[in-house]
Amino acid sequence: MNKVECIRAMLAAGREKDLLDFVEGESTYLSGASCGAPQTAEQKRMWVLLVHHLRFLTSYGNTMTKVIDGGKYLSAHPESLNEWLDLGAPGIAEEDISAYLKANPL
Q1: Which of 9, 16, 39, 103 could form a disulfide with 57 if both were Cys (CB 3.0 to 4.6 A apart)?
Q2: Residue 92 contacts by C-beta under 8 Å, 6 or more apart in sequence?
Q3: Cβ count near 85 (within 10 Å)
Q4: Tell me, what DSSP letter sits at residue 72?
């Protein structure tokens, strides 16, 4: 499997929190090979929405229903996830995802 297929498999297995750890720079499997958030304005916007989407999935599950939490309307942003994956999941190195999956098989 390539990196994007591995990430899709992680999500299908309910490992949104582990992916969020990668995106937020908190995963113990991150190495210097992963460069983190992209630098272009459009990709930065996508990255921020990706973080919000993964946080939403982690907290509320895979639902398209808007949630009211603390007086705020929250919703999923699956388009940001799809856009990020379509770009090849920039910011996270394939070797780091592979190391994670080696230690945590699906």
Answers
A1: 16
A2: 3, 7, 22, 23, 30, 34
A3: 16
A4: E
Ordered DSSP codes for 46-61 = HHHHHHHHHHHHHHH-
Q: Where do we find the tokens 């599950």?
A: 61
Q: What is the pTM of this model?
A: 0.90
Q: Which two tokens stand for residue 42?
A: 């459009």
User: Please, which residues have CB within 8 angstroms of residue 66's CB and are 6 or more apart in sequence?
Assistant: 73, 74, 75
Is residue 64 over pLDDT 80?
A: no
In this predicted structure, the answer to whether residue 72 has a pLDDT above a threshold of 90 is no
Whole-angstrom distance, CA of residue 37 vs CA of residue 47: 7
Q: How many CB atoms lie within 10 A of CB 52?
A: 15
CA-to-CA separations, 62 to 12, 35, 48, in angstroms, rounded: 10, 28, 18
What is the model's pLDDT at position 103?
97
- CA dist., res. 1 & res. 3, Å (int): 7
Band (pLDDT 50/70/90 cuts) for residue 101 is very high
